[in-house]
Amino acid sequence: MKITYGIHVEIAQDNNDIRYMITEDGIPIQDACLWLDFISVNSYLTGERYAYALLRYFRFLKANRLHYRQVTSKRVIEEYIKELLGLGEKVINYESRLTFTALNTYITVLKSFYHWLEDEKKVSTNPVLYSSKRTRQAPLVNTKLLYGQIWQFDIEETLLSRVTYRRKRNHLKWYSEQEYKSIQSNLPSLRDKIVFVLSVETGMRIGEILGLKIYHFDPFNPSLEIVREQNIENRSQAKTTERTLYIYQSLAEMIQTYMGTERSEVNILELDYLFLNSKGKHMGKPLKPRNFLRILKNAGEKAGLTKSEIRTHSGRSSRAQQLVELMRDHPELGITKTFINEELGWKSERSIQPYEKGYSMQQKRKIMDRIEPVILEKKKGCNYDEN
Question: Sorted alphabetically, which PROSITE patterns does this protein's record hold (predicted)?
């Protein structure tokens, strides 16, 4: 039986607003709740993830009769992380069930929380040697000891560097044309095919797709409106900028067909969400990202792909790579970096860089085909001059 020490995450919901709180014996922990409100401004999903990470830390402190404001030793953080890993005092040659990425998330939460406490002047001041890993030149005073130590916390510099972490999973970066067609043909319903095609043809995130309402679709000027809404019913949220995406006529016709057939048959709750569950106890409710991921993985497996490598984000990556290749190969189309950034809702110009660095095998083949006659022509010219 899991010991909770009376500390829980509780959810307060008002219409389409949601708030995460950490309580002890039913009483909100003020600092934690205020901080969660602060970091949930842009996304309640971040608030949820951070709330459960901080909950685990608070329970660890309660088990060791510590208060978060009383922690002044880096050793406490190390012991906490060893508990996360299930290590106790055994840190050598252990295959952890927790990935390095997940572990880093727990540390990030602590950094953010104590940074906020520092800004709010809720942590006692203590001299520390360095305030951050980026400034290792002179001792700083009047800095919160714990935040300084957590900020400096580097797993590779501690005993925990001897822990063997589970390897990061490989994921399918983007689809080939054959993979795209094969997955689409193995999806079980028109709804699922449309969601998949939308991801590949528009580059929308799965949260943006499943957050679509019927009034976001314009069949007369085929387009979709991406709006930043909470959508707490299926936890789908747009993380990128709000924008209008124009879609192909063929895709618009697929959506209209779906709305008049599959969707109308299951819309028993009369909801506005475009994509609804079609069976079971959740019939009529909006489709959730994790449910579509399961459907996509099954279709990918039937298409001959490795199930564990399938992810919903591959459609978005495929669209990004396609646009970059078209920009290179067909300048007459007028595709620019600005156009790609606007299509994908990217705010930073650096987002396109991973796609610009590499050339696909098809592009390399085309380039070699163009180079070959030039090289051969030069060789002929050299032979002629020698004679």
Answer: CB, TYR_RECOMBINASE
Go through 149-163 and write b for each residue having 16 or more CB atoms within 10 A of its CB, e for each that does not: bbbbbebeebebeeb
With 70 as the cut, is the pLDDT of residue 194 above it?
yes
**What's at 268, amino acid-wise?**
I
CB 194 within 8 A of CB 258: yes
Question: What is the per-residue pLDDT across 225-260, written as a single tens digit (0 to 9) for each?
Answer: 999 887 878 888 777 889 999 999 999 999 999 999
pLDDT at 286 over 70: yes
How does pLDDT run across 289-332, given as a tens digit for each residue?
999 999 999 999 999 999 988 999 999 999 998 999 899 888 89
CA distance 275 to 284: 9
Better-predicted residue by pLDDT, 170 or 368: 368
Kindly report, residue by residue over 28-47, the tens digit of the pLDDT: 999 999 999 888 877 777 88
- Residue for token pair 């860089």: 353
Cα separation of 59 and 48, whole Å? 17
Cα–Cα distance, 238 to 261 (Å, whole number): 27
CA distance 196 to 200: 7
